[in-house]
Amino acid sequence: MTADPVSAVFGALADPTRRAILARLATGEATVNELAAPFPISVQAISKHLGVLERAGLIVRTRDAQWRRCRLDPTPLRTVAEWVDQYRRLWAERYDALDDYLHDLKETSHDRDP
Amino acid sequence: MTADPVSAVFGALADPTRRAILARLATGEATVNELAAPFPISVQAISKHLGVLERAGLIVRTRDAQWRRCRLDPTPLRTVAEWVDQYRRLWAERYDALDDYLHDLKETSHDRDP
DNA sequence: TGTAGATTCAACCCGACGGTTAATTAGCTA
DNA sequence: TAGCTAATTAACCGTCGGGTTGAATCTACA
Which residue in chain B is spatially nearest to A14 when comparing CA positions? Predict the structure, then answer.
């Protein structure tokens, strides 16, 4: 619960129910009951999931009469994208290595250095 | 344990120690002891973290004499990047809105954009 | 052969997580 | 005011996660 923000976001995304909630909210605001409807679990469980998403900064909840409207805040996802981008070069290299390998198959000479 | 692959990857990334291990492995292969050295926790705990990372597909472990060399496999990070990209439009819109706002503030000024 | 080192396995502790049901708060409306 | 609905809070349960210590396994090497 006292986790750093990055861990909080990754932790919040590590659950299929919460990711489904985010996908739903990507189409627009919704109340708790609306969000809970598609799931076979209680509305209280959904409320807990929303608490996790809110603490991670992924949603904001505003009071509207007796309803709580939930809205997606994609800002932390931008942070996640930036974090993952640190490694983009690596899987790009992996692609390059595959290219090289396929290229080597066609050529005949190659030198290896340690 | 029986979590879907996406949840397994996000869950593996939801820990600062494991992210630090990945950052270290981004610079090249390492043994378990080498990976454990910077951390104030036991090597057994690191071994558990490596198990989580391996189950998530983020690292591969190869046996080399009595050592276990760990190598980063960035493939699942590509999956994460693709997942996050689904939401890129949303924070881009948010950026656009901010841009509009800042633009309105300055109205006329010099622009030096990247 | 025996011993030292690298790593994992096993058992345990404690707190967090995902879920439940029951009770409570908050706000609309008759 | 009472009563209905939306949502959260509280208490509880079983499991998992991160950590520990101690023992087991595997390998190199004197």
Answer: B7
> Model confidence over B37-92: pLDDT tens digits?
999 999 999 999 999 999 999 999 998 777 889 999 999 999 999 999 999 988 87
pTM of this prediction exceeds 0.85: no
Reduced 3-state DSSP string for B46-105:
HHHHHHHHHHCCCEEEEEECCEEEEEECCHHHHHHHHHHHCCHHHHHHHHHHHHHHHHHH
Nucleic strand D contacts from chain B, 14-73, CB < 7 Å: 14-15, 17-18, 40-42, 44-45, 48-49, 52, 63, 65-66
Q: Which two structure tokens, joined as six digits, stand for B41?
A: 């926790």
Identify the CA nearest to B60 among candidates B71, B49, B45.
B71
Sites in chain A below the pLDDT cut of 50: 1, 108-114
